[in-house]
Amino acid sequence: MIKVENVSFHYKNGNCILENLNLEIQEGEIVSIIGKNGTGKSTFLNLLAGMTKPSQGDIWMDEFNTKSKKNFLDIRKKVGIVFQNPDNQILFPRVYDDVEFALKNLGLENRESRIENALELVNMKDFKENDTYELSLGQKQRINIASILAIQPKYILLDEPTTMLDSSEKDNFYRVLKNLKQEGYTVIFVTNYVDEILLADKILVMEDKQIATIFQKGDILEKVDLLKKCGIQIPKLVQMLEFLKQNNINIQLKEWTQEELIQEIVRIWKSEKYC
Ligand SMILES: Nc1ncnc2c1ncn2[C@@H]1O[C@H](COP(=O)(O)OP(=O)(O)OP(=O)(O)O)[C@@H](O)[C@H]1O
Ligand SMILES: [Mg+2]
């Protein structure tokens, strides 16, 4: 479990960036983080990864407090972070070497099978001998994700993983996210695309240095006003659900896709009530 207790953060210049954050994230949850620019989303992700330490309060990744120097290696094995720009995290000219790098650094065994499994999970197993500079941005992003998956961390943090991807590469990433969920990983990702918040089980909204709200996706209709207040647009699918609800048509979604919504509308349309 991830526990964030009374966490505040300021840089050396003294400006407070995050103020009194509290939350718990359970194992296997997928959490999306959204908020206007500069609300501290990346800073928060870096704190969770142990890259920076809280100025006040504590972050626990299971039994490990990120503040404690002696936990550094354990946290590196437990938590993987991928930054927004895929180019910044690629270090080697060959895919295999790039994925292997952190494994060597951390002294982990069974490198070959770890690399095979990780590349399989991101649908890049045919690329292990390829040159990294020949890859598209989306492929590089998936290699970056494979590099942390090979470590077999429990927690995966992704900062705006789709911002630089075209629509087909975005779809590839969504498939990777589904794979990660099926495999039981805990994934926390920051996004600036409102529709992507629905890929998560839980949605966290940042506003003015704080967590404005964190809620289960199924409760999003009750959060529409709060999202608007935080300057967040409402996902198209949620707008449609809201319109239907206002017309006394209540639809429960499982997959949260447009296809599922259309199927549900057709099902209700064909049901006795409307015949
Ligand atoms: N090294 C730094 N020193 C001082 N202030 C910083 C530093 N890095 C970031 N900040 C400030 O911290 C605040 C939060 O930045 P952060 O990058 O976490 O926001 P964000 O929500 O990820 O924004 P974006 O949506 O643009 O990615 C911003 O006001 C930023 O100017
Ligand atoms: Mg950011």
Quick rundown:
The chain has 275 residues and is of the alpha/beta class. The chain contains nine helices and ten strands.
CATH class label of the largest domain:
Alpha Beta
- What spatial order of strands do you see in the largest sheet? 6-7-8-3-9-10
The CATH homologous superfamily of the largest domain: P-loop containing nucleotide triphosphate hydrolases
The domain tally reads 2
Number of distinct beta strands: 10
The profile of the biggest β sheet is: 6 strands, mixed
> Can you name the CATH architecture of the largest domain?
3-Layer(aba) Sandwich
- Bound chemical compounds: adenosine-5'-triphosphate, magnesium ion
Order of helices and strands: EEEHEEHEHHHEHEEEHHH
First-to-last CA distance: 49 Å
* Overall average residue pLDDT: 94
Number of helices, counting only DSSP H or I runs of 4 residues or more = 9
Low-confidence stretches: none
Q: Give the DSSP E fraction (strand runs of 2 or more residues).
A: 15-25%
